């Protein structure tokens, strides 16, 4: 805890209890007492779970009672490997830490750190990708690459997002991409792929399609040919992926969908398990565990995961503004007037001397980089104080934890087929099992919240003060009303303030102008006579015949909300003529010296 306090983090009692529960689970795993499940610990970013793991591994190696007990840490990003190694070596553990990431992934870049050989290391740092590659179709206990002294490592720690496999899809276009490489290996394989393409194009949407063995080829021959394509480095990545997917989908009955991004194209949707069933017991550390519905599905349907009590912070120091326009990649691409970039630049210009973090969609090839587009509206001096991250690279770094202004230039959306595949994967559904639309929706919302939590917590909001509140932070999010993201934010960040972000103040409509003009007259001439202004009175005075139209053209307009706030008024309810009515009342500031 002293190290956390040295970093300016002040854990509350609940945070200390959460960290204590994590430490107890790690100890039970080292002593072979932890139940054979995946154990999810969801502690908010900045609470100290990484620091806890570091010191646990230090104590494990130094403990006389745990001599020879080894551990493996699975990281999601290669960039994290060096940092974790240096953290452990900083505790004097140089002779006990090894790294296993493969030569192609850059293993040699870590040799200068003086790591011991993987099979000799008490603590092995590796990546989640290495696990899935080495254990494809094999048990963890039989995969010697992760062993210590010839036996599986009992302490297993998984950092960040966990899924038992991966969802995948195959479209008629994907099958077409396989025709030429398939023909180079076997004319019969090319014919079989083309036949399957025809069958898929004629298949009924939302029905199962049984993918039979390749005609004219034995199953072994087809699998061997597709495997050759999947590992052929001369092939494009999408072709390799299509060959791998077709190998897995053979003899299955995937669900047929329309491709939401390519009108008229049909896809086969399914998933593959990639995590060996004997990897449990294992501890999973995912700050997003409390908001992702995939974990709830794994716990309820697969029964192989236990969700421990989540630990959240008080986000009352977080102010979030939401700009209610489209924030997807296509919305930015189609923004010919650069409205979104201009709005972001105008907001940054209001605090030109402060640092900013902007998280945006990954730059497209042959398109102007996001930073350069923003340069058109900001001076070089102001732009020098703006840092940039793109979605997909928006987690796992603390380099921006001092920045108090952050912009989510849109949010990251996946195709609907991915959300459905992810839901089926998490629940372990069979081919014939139907997925309720509500389940797909909550999985989709959970993935939205996961991305936003990880993104905003790159900035100062990840810190914790002495009262357990996040550090002060202003966040600006571009998200349309249709996305539903604005409604998710209060639950995602308990205690935060959510309001409308309007880079370009709206002009008042004629209806709003009429209402505000009447309110201004009352405030000027009869303010002492009014402590509550009923909406019904305003409608009658201005001859609004339609109550619904008044609500739509006045009350729901952002410019109306801004105008009444400027005049010290708020929407409220009061009893008028014996019944409760809605209207406007004055906002009285709290005053310790007098009654409100």
Q: Layout of helices and strands, plus pairs?
A:
Elements (H helix, E strand, L loop, with lengths): L1 H5 L6 H18 L7 E4 L7 H14 L8 E5 L3 H11 L7 E4 L22 E5 H7 L12 E2 L2 E2 L2 E5 L5 E7 H6 L1 H7 L1 H16 L16 H12 L6 H13 L5 E4 L7 E8 L8 E4 L7 H10 L2 E3 L10 E6 L5 H5 L5 H11 L6 E5 L9 H6 L4 H4 L2 E5 L14 E4 L7 H12 L9 H20 L16 E6 L6 H8 L4 E4 L9 H16 L6 E3 H7 L5 H9 L2 H9 L2 E8 L2 E8 L10
Parallel strand pairs: 1-11, 1-12, 2-4, 2-7, 3-4, 7-11, 13-17, 13-18, 14-15, 14-16, 16-17
Antiparallel strand pairs: 5-6, 8-10, 9-10, 19-21, 20-21
Architecture overview:
The protein has 596 residues and is an alpha/beta fold. Helices cover 38% and strands 17% of the residues. Strands 3-4-2-7-11-1-12 form a 7-stranded parallel sheet. A 6-stranded parallel sheet has the order 15-14-16-17-13-18, covered by helices on one side. Strands 8-10-9 form a 3-stranded antiparallel sheet. α7 runs antiparallel to α8 (187-202), α11 packs parallel to α16 and α17 packs across α18. Residues 589-596 have low confidence and may be disordered.
Task: Tell me briefly what this model is.
This protein has 596 residues and is of the alpha/beta class. Helix content is 38%, strand content 17%.
- Distance between the first and last residues' Cα: 43 Å
Low-confidence stretches: 589-596
Question: What oligomeric assembly is this protein in?
Answer: single chain
**How are strands sequenced across the largest beta sheet?**
3-4-2-7-11-1-12
Q: What percent strand?
A: 15-25%
Characterize the main sheet: 7 strands, parallel
Number of helices: 22
Mean pLDDT: 86
Instruction: Assign the structural class, choosing from mainly alpha, mainly beta, alpha/beta, alpha+beta, or little secondary structure.
Output: alpha/beta
Radius of gyration from the alpha-carbon trace, in angstroms: 29 Å
The count of strands amounts to 21
- From the spread of the alpha carbons, the general shape counts as globular
The share of residues in helices is 25-40%
């Amino acid at each position: 805890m002293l190290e956390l306090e040295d970093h300016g983090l002040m854990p509350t009692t609940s945070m200390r209890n959460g960290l204590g529960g994590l430490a107890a689970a790690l100890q039970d795993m080292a002593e072979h007492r932890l139940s054979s499940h995946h154990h999810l610990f969801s502690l908010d970013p900045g609470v100290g779970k990484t620091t806890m793991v570091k010191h646990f591994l230090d104590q494990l190696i130094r403990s006389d009672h745990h001599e020879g007990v080894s551990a493996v840490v699975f990281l999601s990003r290669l960039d994290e490997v060096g940092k974790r190694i240096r953290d452990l070596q900083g505790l004097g553990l140089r002779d006990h830490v090894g790294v296993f990431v493969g030569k192609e992934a850059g293993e040699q870049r870590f040799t200068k750190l003086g790591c011991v050989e993987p099979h000799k290391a008490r603590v092995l740092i590796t990546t989640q990708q290495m696990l899935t590659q080495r254990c494809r179709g094999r048990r963890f206990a039989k995969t010697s690459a992760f062993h210590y002294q010839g036996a599986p490592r009992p302490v297993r720690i998984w950092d960040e997002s966990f899924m038992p496999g991966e969802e995948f899809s195959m479209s008629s276009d994907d099958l077409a991409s396989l025709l030429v490489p398939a023909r180079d290996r076997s004319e019969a394989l090319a014919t079989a792929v083309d036949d399957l393409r025809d069958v898929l194009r004629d298949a009924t949407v939302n029905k199962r399609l049984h993918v039979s063995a390749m005609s004219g080829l034995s199953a072994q021959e087809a699998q061997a040919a597709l495997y050759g394509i999947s590992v052929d480095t001369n092939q494009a990545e999408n072709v390799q992926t299509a060959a791998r997917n077709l190998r897995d989908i053979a003899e299955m009955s995937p669900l047929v969908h329309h491709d939401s991004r390519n009108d008229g194209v049909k896809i086969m949707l399914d998933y593959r398990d990639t995590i060996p069933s004997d990897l449990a017991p294992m501890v999973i550390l995912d700050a997003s565990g409390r908001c992702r519905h995939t974990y709830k599905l794994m716990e309820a349907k697969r029964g192989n995961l236990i969700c421990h009590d989540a630990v959240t912070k008080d986000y009352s120091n977080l102010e979030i503004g939401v700009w209610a326009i489209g924030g997807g990649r296509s919305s930015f691409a189609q923004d010919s007037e650069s409205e979104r970039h201009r709005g972001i630049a105008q907001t940054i210009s209001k605090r030109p001397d402060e640092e900013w973090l902007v998280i945006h969609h990954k730059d497209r090839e042959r398109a102007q980089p996001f930073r350069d587009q923003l340069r058109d509206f900001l001076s070089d001096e102001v732009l020098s104080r703006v840092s940039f991250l793109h979605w997909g690279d928006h987690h796992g770094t603390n380099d921006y934890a001092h920045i108090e202004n952050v912009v989510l230039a849109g949010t990251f959306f996946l195709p609907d087929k991915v959300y459905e595949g992810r839901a089926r994967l998490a629940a372990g559904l069979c081919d014939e099992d139907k997925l309720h639309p509500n389940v797909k929706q909550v999985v989709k919302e959970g993935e939205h919240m996961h991305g936003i939590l990880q993104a905003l917590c790159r900035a100062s909001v990840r810190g914790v003060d002495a009262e357990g509140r996040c550090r002060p932070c202003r966040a600006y999010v571009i998200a349309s009303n249709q996305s539903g993201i604005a409604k998710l934010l209060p639950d995602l960040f308990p205690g935060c303030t959510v309001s409308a972000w309007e880079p370009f103040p709206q002009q008042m409509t004629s209806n709003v102008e009429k209402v505000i003009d009447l309110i201004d007259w009352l405030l000027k001439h009869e303010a002492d006579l009014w402590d509550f202004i009923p909406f019904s009175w305003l409608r009658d005075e201005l001859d609004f015949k339609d109550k619904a139209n008044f609500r739509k053209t006045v009350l729901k307009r952002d410019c109306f909300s801004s105008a009444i706030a400027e005049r010290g008024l708020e929407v409220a309810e009061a009893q008028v003529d014996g019944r409760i009515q809605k209207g406007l009342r004055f906002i009285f500031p709290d005053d310790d010296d007098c009654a409100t």
